[in-house]
Amino acid sequence: TQNGLSFDISFENEDESIIRKHPPKRFQKLEDDQISSPLSIDRLQEKLDEAEVRRQQILQNRIQSAQLRKVLKKPLTVDSIQEDEIDYLQVPDDKPNTPFLKN
Question: Does the pLDDT at position 95 exceed 80?
Answer without folding.
Answer: no
